[in-house]
Specification:
mainly beta; Jelly Rolls; 5 domains; six-stranded antiparallel beta sheet; transmembrane receptor protein tyrosine kinase activity; nucleotide-binding; disulfide bond; EC 2.7.10.1
């Protein structure tokens, strides 16, 4: 709905047409509880008619201490069935004295009076009913019992009781009691039609009750496994990886090796070769190989020998090579040994490969054969006459003599010095095997482990997990501990499980309800949550914002007779006050029969507007000036539900024709009519003919005077100040924001603060004249603005009052003129009413001299452009169908009434509308033609003037000297007011000063004007007229 605007904004006159909402009241269907309804039975399924899927009676369970051969059944065969399609049956063994019960638990209320009844028959036993009141802990605090029945004849038993304090539940039991049996035939109890109701339950509200359902389901056995082969998690495959090697090259420093794991390592060493000289080669180093068992973490030190060097007196290769001879003929030093040690000491060597002998003089090669003569590991120094240095080894090699090549050092392995080639299962020694520097190699033991177990195992219907099993009913729970034996579950691929679920009956049955037709008024009073009550608006203003209230919340509780605690799928059931329908709403729309602005977008008339977000309650709109006034313009609001198959609001919005049960399902629609009206305001006084106020209204010419040194002459086309209201035509307090009274930016002279009406001497900007009121006989130039369809007619009726400055009394007066020695009335107070005789007053013309007054009235180029543009696009058609151009102000003497009543017409009206209000664009994207805005704001130009010979008398009093002097004296003034109406093609608007008439200050005394019902515009002198100013009357 459209939110109401303040009624004070509606300026339509009392006799103006009001369209408003034309929609008729609507009929809707409401489902509500009957005033008198069936009693609520608090024993759900007390007639044993409803069954679980498992076949058990719904909401009833059997209880017995010894269940052997006891059965809780439902009797369906005609023999012993009491009523309906089945009855309760309890069967126990003969003469067993078993106490067996069919039990139902329901809600109970402390202090409530209840009535119970039920039918029962007993075969060879005693049967009866019990009722227990239970507290919050489930403990029975009081029990009632019917008499014990001992006959197969079915009887009805009843109980009346009051639930004690602390009662929260009632437990009702059908009891099979002690045996009364002389046979061996089983004993039976049959029961049916159990009812538990409240006293006065036919008018009590519905109480939600819970019941239990037991469902037996079959499902796959989670423990069942089809026989299949799986990987053996304990299988260990065989490992057979060859040992890796680590090589050691010559570095000139010791190197280390640490055993990564325990095993037998293969060690190999190559001694370094002796040095070469000229054409003689050094002897080759020896190769030694053996094995050694190491523990993980054991460390060996590896010394790799260096090759001998050529030249005299050269040191031997690193690690024991002998030095070369000292003669200048030339020789080479011996090669160093390569060895493995357990420490850094030579005494810890356990494998040594001897180095080769150094070369002698030219042609005497070094020797690879072993001839160890030294006591230490260092080879013998070469002979003085250029002999080669001996090879390093376990013991150093012989130098070979003068000029000769030296011998290799000995090797060592397995605690044995070796001087020749050896190859056996323990070690290998080969002389002459290595040229260059020595080297060594360690081969790690191979990795090998045997296969453990089989790669796969066959699982035959078993979990291969340790488990402990707990059975609950027919279900299986497997609990797997950290350790334990494998669990072999049941071989069945499926298991049966009984599931208990509690349900609540929150709604009364259908026979509690009735469907009524109710009338929804077209103009209901709406309660806004948190915002009070109001009716839908009956009018909107042109060039004014408005709001639409379109909530998802509403008061759906209705009469309060629905009896439900939560929502349901049916209208009239489950709805509450202040309830939100957001979750069921897909879209909300608005459509207007006029152009609107919403969220910065201008939508032409009859455009469907989507309202987002949908969870909002209020939506802001703006009614642009470019619309026409309208009587009962159409508006439409509708919402579409999530389950709507289509937007079918207009045909079935309340399901009246869609479904037989008439329950609303899909959408909501609201159609409404609203009036579009304009405004009248910005009443402005621009000038008077009285020179006293000329310097107030117009810009002075400072070198020219009306009255020397008192009143300057003025430029009539240059406004200095003006009189007007302190609220503009849109009823906003004037400010720089409103551009004062220049609402649409086309009247620049109004873009300054107004001085409040009326024209009184105290506002004069010349101090010497602030006690001299306006003198009658001078014209007052005024205009007023309208918005809307006001193109051709206004009505202005002047009223005059006598204000006694001594007493403050206001008295209506009549105005006369002396014509041919006869006093004739020109304004009789209140004479111009419906049916009055215009000939009853003298026709003292009201005229507009546009040719001479246009500049004085500030008719500038912008206003002229707008006016002539509207004229060019607008035509009038008379009753005969003749087309004539729209008329605008023109010429010199346009008569539009007289001193009694004025009717300004097209020749008094100019156009001032634009699409900018207060400087803000109100035509986004130029969606409307600017002409629409130009035409919808008007300025009406008129003049108030009394003749300088006017005579004032108290209203209705004869023209006598005493009566005239009682008004026209120095202690009185004349107050001028006017009833101003704009007459449009749709409405008539009444103008009133927006802040009232207020008061006026004369000669330092303030007098209230609030009692005058018309708009006061000027204060005249009661004694003097323009005739007293004859000498200057023609100058202003």
């Amino acid at each position: 709905m459209v939110v109401s605007l303040d009624s004070s904004l509606d300026q339509r006159s009392a006799g103006s047409l009001v369209g408003g909402n034309l929609q008729s009241d609507t009929k809707e269907y409401v489902t509500e509880l009957k005033n008198v309804h069936p009693h609520q039975n608090f024993l759900f399924n007390g007639n044993a008619e409803q069954l679980c899927n498992s076949g058990h009676i719904l909401n009833w369970k059997g209880e017995v201490d010894n269940p052997t051969d006891v059965a809780f059944l439902r009797r369906t065969s005609s023999d012993w069935k009491i009523s309906g399609s089945g009855s309760f049956e309890i069967r126990v063994p003969a003469k067993s004295n078993r106490i067996a019960k069919y039990v139902c638990t329901t809600v109970g209320e402390a202090g409530t009076h209840y009535h119970f009844s039920g039918k029962i028959g007993a075969h060879r036993t005693e049967g009866y009913f019990t009722i227990e009141a239970l507290n919050a802990n489930g403990k029975a605090i009081k029990t009632w019992q019917t008499p014990k029945h001992k006959s197969s004849q079915v009887i009805e038993q009843s109980l009346c009781f009051t639930a004690p304090n602390d009662t929260v539940q009632l437990r009702v039991s059908i009891v099979n009691g002690l045996s009364h049996n002389t046979t061996t035939v089983a004993e039976h109890i049959f029961a049916d039609d159990l009812v538990l109701t409240k006293e006065h339950g036919d008018t009590s509200p519905w109480v939600p009750i819970k019941y239990s359902a037991y469902e037996e389901i079959t499902q796959n056995n989670p423990g069942y496994v089809e026989p299949h082969t799986i990987s053996n998690p304990e299988y260990v495959p065989a490992v057979n990886e060859p040992g890796t090697t680590q090589n050691f090259s010559y570095t000139g420093n010791r190197q280390t090796f640490t055993a990564p794991y325990t095993g037998e390592y293969t060690l190999e060493a190559w001694g370094a070769a002796g040095g070469n000289y000229s054409k003689a080669n050094g002897g080759y180093g020896t190769y030694v190989k053996t094995t050694k068992t190491l523990n993980k973490g054991d460390t060996m030190y590896v010394y790799v020998g260096g090759q001998g060097k050529p030249g005299n007196s050269k040191s031997g290769g690193w690690n024991g090579g002998g030095t070369s001879g000292g003669c200048t003929c030339g020789s080479s030093s011996g090669g160093g040994a390569t060895d493995f040690r357990t420490t850094t000491s030579t005494n810890s060597r356990f494998l040594v490969a001897g180095g080769g002998g150094g070369a002698g003089t030219s042609g005497n090669h070094g020797r690879s054969s072993i001839y160890a003569t030294m006591s230490s590991y260092v080879g013998q120094t070469g002979a003085t006459s250029d002999g080669g240095g001996g090879g390093g080894g376990y013991r150093g090699g012989y130098n070979g003599g003068t000029d000769m090549g030296a011998y290799a050092g000995s090797s060592f392995v397995n605690n044995t010095e070796i001087t020749h080639n050896v190859s056996n299962s323990t070690y290998v020694v080969t002389t002459g095997s290595n040229s260059g520097h020595g080297r060594a190699r360690v081969t790690l033991p191979p990795k090998y482990s045997p296969e453990v177990g089989e790669p796969t195992i066959l699982v035959n219907n078993a979990y291969y997990v340790p488990a402990v099993v707990k059975k609950t009913g027919s279900s299986i729970v497997v609990i797997t501990p950290a350790q334990g034996e494998p669990y072999i579950p049941d071989l069945a691929p499926t298991i049966r499980t009984v599931i208990q679920s509690d349900k609540t009956i929150s709604e009364p049955p259908d026979d509690w309800y009735e469907t009524k037709v109710i009338t929804i008024p077209a103009n209901p009073t709406v309660t806004v949550p948190g915002g009070g009550n109001f009716s839908a608006g009956n009018f909107l203003l042109l060039d004014y914002p408005f709001q639409v209230y379109f909530p998802n919340e509403g008061d759906f509780y209705g009469t309060g007779a629905y009896g439900l605690s939560k929502t349901s799928n049916h209208t009239g059931k489950g709805f509450t006050n202040n309830m939100s329908t957001t979750e069921w709403t897909a879209e909300k729309f608005a459509k207007f029969g006029f152009a609107v602005i919403h969220k910065g977008v201008l939508y032409p008339a009859n455009t469907e507007i989507s309202l987002t977000p949908i969870d909002e309650n209020y939506y802001d709109f703006y009614l642009p000036l470019g619309n026409k006034e309208a009587l009962s313009a159409f508006t439409e609001f509708y919402a579409v539900a999530n389950n709507a198959p289509s937007v079918d609001n207009r045909t079935a919005y309340n399901n009246k024709k869609r479904h037989s049960h008439k329950n609303a399902r899909h959408s909501a629609l609201r159609e409404y009519n609203i009036d579009i009206i304009g405004r009248i305001g910005n009443l402005v006084m621009e000038d008077t003919g009285d020179y006293r106020f000329s310097n107030f209204f117009k810009q002075p010419l400072y070198n020219e005077w009306y009255i020397p040194s008192v009143v300057h002459k003025v430029a009539l086309d240059q406004q200095r100040a003006y009189l007007g209201p302190l609220k503009d035509i849109r009823n906003h307090t004037v400010s720089t924001h409103t551009h004062y009274l220049n609402t649409y930016g086309s009247l620049d002279f109004l873009n300054r603060a107004p001085v409040n009406l009326p024209l009184s001497p105290s506002i004069n900007n010349i101090p010497a004249l602030q006690r001299q009121p306006l003198r009658y006989g001078y014209p007052i130039f005024m205009d007023i603005q309208t918005t809307g369809n006001y193109y051709s007619k206004m009505q202005i009726i002047p009223y005059y009052y006598h204000l006694n400055l001594k007493t403050g009394t206001l008295t209506p007066v009549d105005v006369y003129i002396k014509e041919d020695k006869e006093y004739k009335p020109i304004n009789l107070f209140g004479a111009a009413v419906t049916g009055w005789d215009p000939n009853s007053v003298y026709n003292f013309h009201a005229t507009l001299d546009w040719e001479s007054e246009a500049d004085r009235r500030n008719y500038d180029s912008e206003e002229q452009t707008i006016t002539e543009y509207v004229q060019s696009k607008t035509y009038n058609v008379d009753e005969a169908g003749n087309v004539a151009p729209l008329r605008i102000p023109i010429g010199q003497y346009h008569t539009y009434g007289n001193a009694q009543i004025m009717h300004p017409s097209e020749r008094n009206r100019t156009f001032i509308g634009t699409s900018c209000t207060y400087g803000y664009d109100k035509n986004p994207d130029d969606a409307l033609d600017e002409y629409n805005y130009n035409q919808q704001a008007q300025r009406w130009h008129f003049t108030f003037k009394l003749p300088s010979s006017a005579i004032f008398t108290p209203h209705g009093q004869p023209m006598t000297k005493a009566n005239v002097e009682s008004v026209m004296n120095n202690t009185s003034v004349i107050v001028a007011a006017a009833d101003i109406k704009a007459v449009g093609d749709t409405y008539v608007l009444q103008y009133e000063h927006p802040t009232g008439n207020g008061s006026v200050t004369i000669a330092g005394t303030t007098h209230s004007l609030a009692s005058i019902p018309y708009s006061v515009y000027a204060i005249y002198s009661a004694k003097k007229s323009a005739a007293n100013d004859l000498s200057i009357s023609g100058t202003h």
